[in-house]
Amino acid sequence: MAGKLHNYVEIASGHITNRGRADLLSNLPNLIGNTEEKHELYHSWYSFDKDIKRHLNDKNASISSFKGSYYLDEIILDLDRPKSMGEKGFLDFLRYFVGTNLTEDLGIKDGHIKIWFSGTGFHIVIPNLFGFTSSVTLPLSVKSTLEDVFPDCDSIYDGSRLIRAPYSYNAKSGLFKIPLTREDVFSLTIDEIKEKASILPTDLPAITNDMFFNSFDKVDDLYLKKYLKLYSEITSSYASIKRSAFDIDPSSVTTCMQTVLSKAPIPGERNDSMMRLASWMRRNGMPKQIVYNTLSEWSGNDSEAKTTTESEFEKGYNYWCNDYIMSKHCDPKCIHFKRKDYSLALETSEDLTRRYVKFVKEGISKKAFNFRDIYRMNHDFWVMPGELVIVLGDTGMGKSTFVSNLCISLRTKKIMYLSLENNWHLTNKRLIQMGHGYTQTEANDYCNEVDENDPNDPILKSLYTPYDHIVFGHVPPDINKLQEEAAYQNPDIILVDPTDELHVNNVYNEFERMNQIIVKLKEIATNQSCIVIAVHHINKESAKNGIIDIHSAKGTSTVVQKADKVLTINGDENHPQRMLYSEKNRDGGKLKLMFEFNKKLMLFDQTDSLAPVAIPEV
After folding, report:
1. What are the domain boundaries of the chain?
2. CATH class name, domain 369-606
3. S-S: 525 plus which of 23, 251, 366, 532, CB 3.0-4.6 Å?
4. Are residues 433 and 439 in contact, defined by beta-carbon separation less than 8 angstroms?
5. At what angle do helices 302-315 and 270-283 cross, to 10 degrees?
């Protein structure tokens, strides 16, 4: 980054969530502080021009919605230790990666490799040896290239990713991010590296630019350029092609396509943009000849305009608001902006079948789960990605405890758990109890033995290991922010407990608010291809008569109509027996299981009073 210190980056200061502010790269060393301050600092993986500062000044804007140019002067590769690999083995892998993968296999020169210990893993920094050039689509090219060339590194190349700044404190490990020489990597033990990272350099009054920014040997040749991949085909004749940008003042109807037409084609996106323009014009009744003439003049490529027009009028392709070209030019003034319902998301039979084949081969095993794998049952009861599961039960039935038990059982799934009714320490205490079968007293006794300042404390790690596949939230979010975070986290399962704690801006009618929450939760499950499990309160009538069924959901009928599965928990609050029953299952048979609610250990223990017998599929 040293060559572009005038560029801006997004920063997160104090904690990775404190993002949304732009600053000059050259100012980052001034934000580190000293050893005693233990200050965490992150910056965006890419750098930007001053447009990013103007963009982030909008309180509702985020880096993910930025439509300007991205810059890349150096490449940061992130190596994190897999949970199955010990620290010594991880250090050996780093040595192999640097000595064999980078130096021998790719021929990267020693003077073009800088190594940093991040406090938990390693960051390897190299110059831009691939020849990436700044553009609005740069993250797409970088991602497709680096994931191919460096498959062992974490994929952190999307446009919104942050990376720990040099010399920043790592709160997880209690160490600092520090540079390592090649000799350090091949001679020091992991404990010696940690000792080196326990304090910032004390022989200097401050972190200087020379220390902070990587200084590489001169790059005379982009010798990795042969591996460069572009997101779309880019022809070399752009400079000589005559193109036209139409003089358009975009209206509020499909503003994105008017914006595309008002600008010259973007390298790498010309063909994709032409297909969307052709689709837009055809659906608005433009004759074939007009579509062809417009595309030919706009692109400067007559033959491509002709084939694109012929293809559109023959096949009738459709694109909608979440398309990557259209979404880049999305404008709040567009009439489709609120609902993003520009077009029906129609797919050909071939496309749909291909998606289903891929889903069967990959999706079921990756994100779906089967109750039969968790409980004693005589038939399958699958929960699939895209499904909304509503869990109903009266106060005291243990709804939160049951879904928490379920999450702990799903160790191979990435789960985002919004525990919005219980405070964070109650949630964590119960998870420790569930994960280990501890009483509350035993859980607290073990906590008192932990040295919370020692990142390697074995008791600390053992306490959270049963639920380390779960990330937690305890502050009720706006439903639209939940959708954004789901896209960022890409979880297999989202658990919301309970639904009525979610916020909906500018909606004050309780029935309409709940309608929007349920509709949005189903939309999140569908669009993010994940499972959403939502704990929902019951209505007064059901609470009074003590029988919970499909009609017990608080609010309108939208709750059970949108749900793919409705599970009820029935029992007597004064007795431990609980029955879990599927009141609705959009695809498949019924579920009926008996449990004993062990409040002392916060466990739902399956009993044999009705299990493993379950109602067979119909």
Report:
1. 2-227, 240-328, 369-606
2. alpha beta
3. 532
4. yes
5. 50
